[in-house]
C-alpha cells in the first residue's frame, strides 16, 4: 500500500522583532508622547518681552527637579544608545542615500532663511528688527547677499564665514544672550565652513570620516547652545514673557485645552524642560533618528499657530534635523553623529588645521 501522505516543504519563517527592535520602538513611542506639547515656539517672536533674568523662578523646586531629571534622562539616553544598533531605526536607512547632498541642502535652508529675514525686516531672527542693528538697511543687504550666495551653492566656504561676521552687529544690537539664541545659525555656518558642498553634480561630497566628525560636532554643539539658551532666556528665567505668549495664544497650553489641571506656571516649566531636553539630546548625538522624530513633533505643532514666521525662523533648525537624521540613517556615517573629540583629537586638529578634503 502506497502512502499517499505528502511532505510539505517548510514555508519561509516569519521574522519576529528582536528585543532590541522592540526596545527601540518603545523608546520612540514613549519619547514622542512625552514631548507632544508645543514647546518650540520662540516667545520673543510673538510676544512683548523685557530683559528677563528672573532666576528666582528657575531656582524654585519644580524647575530644579525637572532639570535634574532631564540631565539624568540624557545620560541614560546615551548609555542606551551604546546597546542599540546604528542606525537604530532600520526602516529609515534609505534616507542615508542622500548623505552626499546634505551640505548643499543645509546651505539652501540657511540661505532662504537669511534672505527671508532681510525681506521681512529681521536680522538673523524675527525678534531682532533691522532698524535696531548697526548699519540698518545695509546690514539687511549684506544678509540677503549672503543668503543668495548660499542658495547658489558656489564656493560656500566664503559665505559661511560671512555668516559668522553677522554676529558682531547682532551682539551690539541685542546683547550676548540674543546672540547665543541665534547660535543655530552659527552652527550651520561652521558646518559648511568645515564641509562645504563640492562643485560636482548637486554639490555631492564624500568627506573623510575625520572631517565629517568635526563638522557634525560643531553643528551639534552650537545648536545645543541655542536651544539651551532659549529654554532659559524665554522660559526658566523669563516667565513673564511666557505668560504674555500664553495670554496671546492660550491654545499653546494643550493640557488646559484637553481639561488637565495644568497652570500656566507649570506649563512654562514643562515647555522649558522639553526645550532643554532637546538641546541636551542634540548635544549628545545619541540615537539621532529617534531624537529628530521626537523633536519634530513640537516644532511642527507650532506651525499651525504661528504660520510663516515660524517656518522662516526655524528653517536652519529644520536643516539641522535633516542633517542629523540622514547621517544617522547611513550605516557608514551613523557613528560620526554622536562623536565627541578627545584631547588627542584637539591636538591633532591644531597641528593639522587642514586635514583630508572631499573627494
UniProtKB/TrEMBL annotation:
Residues 1-41 form the signal peptide. The keyword Transcription regulation does not apply. Keywords: Membrane, Signal, Transmembrane, Transmembrane helix. The keyword Transmembrane applies. The chain crosses the membrane at residues 57-80, 101-124, 136-154, 161-179, 214-232, 277-297, 303-327. This is DoxX family membrane protein.
Amino acid at each position: 500500500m502506497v502512502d499517499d501522505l505528502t511532505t510539505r516543504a517548510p514555508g519561509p519563517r516569519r521574522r519576529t522583532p528582536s528585543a532590541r527592535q522592540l526596545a527601540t520602538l518603545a523608546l520612540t513611542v514613549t519619547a514622542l508622547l512625552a514631548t507632544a506639547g508645543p514647546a518650540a515656539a520662540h516667545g520673543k517672536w510673538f510676544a512683548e518681552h523685557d530683559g528677563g533674568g528672573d532666576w528666582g523662578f528657575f531656582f524654585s523646586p519644580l524647575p530644579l527637579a525637572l532639570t535634574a531629571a532631564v540631565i539624568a534622562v540624557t545620560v541614560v539616553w546615551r548609555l542606551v544608545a551604546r546597546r542599540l544598533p546604528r542606525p537604530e531605526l532600520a526602516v529609515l536607512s534609505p534616507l542615508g542615500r542622500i548623505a552626499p547632498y546634505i551640505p548643499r541642502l543645509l546651505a539652501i535652508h540657511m540661505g532662504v532663511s537669511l534672505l527671508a529675514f532681510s525681506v521681512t525686516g529681521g536680522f538673523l531672527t524675527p525678534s531682532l528688527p533691522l532698524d535696531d542693528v548697526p548699519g540698518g538697511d545695509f546690514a539687511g543687504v549684506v544678509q540677503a547677499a549672503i543668503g543668495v550666495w548660499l542658495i547658489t551653492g558656489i564656493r560656500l566656504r566664503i559665505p559661511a564665514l560671512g555668516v559668522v561676521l553677522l554676529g558682531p552687529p547682532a551682539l551690539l544690537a541685542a546683547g550676548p544672550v540674543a546672540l547665543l539664541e541665534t547660535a543655530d545659525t552659527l552652527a550651520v555656518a561652521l558646518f559648511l565652513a568645515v564641509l562645504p558642498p563640492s562643485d560636482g553634480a548637486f554639490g555631492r561630497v564624500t568627506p573623510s570620516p575625520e572631517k565629517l566628525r568635526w563638522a557634525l560636532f560643531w553643528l551639534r554643539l552650537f545648536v545645543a547652545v541655542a536651544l539651551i539658551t532659549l529654554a532659559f532666556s524665554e522660559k526658566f528665567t523669563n516667565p513673564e514673557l511666557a505668560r504674555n505668549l500664553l495670554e496671546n495664544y492660550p491654545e499653546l497650553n494643550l493640557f488646559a485645552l484637553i481639561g488637565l489641571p495644568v497652570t500656566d506656571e507649570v506649563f512654562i516649566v514643562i515647555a522649558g524642560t522639553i526645550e532643554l531636553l532637546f538641546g541636551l539630546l542634540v548635544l549628545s548625538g545619541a540615537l539621532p533618528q529617534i531624537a529628530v522624530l521626537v523633536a519634530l513633533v513640537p516644532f511642527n505643532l507650532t506651525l499651525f499657530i504661528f504660520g510663516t514666521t515660524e517656518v522662516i525662523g526655524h528653517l536652519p533648525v529644520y536643516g539641522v534635523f535633516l542633517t542629523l537624521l540622514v547621517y544617522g540613517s547611513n550605516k557608514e556615517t551613523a557613528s560620526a553623529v554622536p562623536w565627541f573629540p578627545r584631547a588627542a583629537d584637539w591636538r591633532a586638529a591644531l597641528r593639522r588645521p587642514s586635514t583630508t578634503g572631499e573627494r
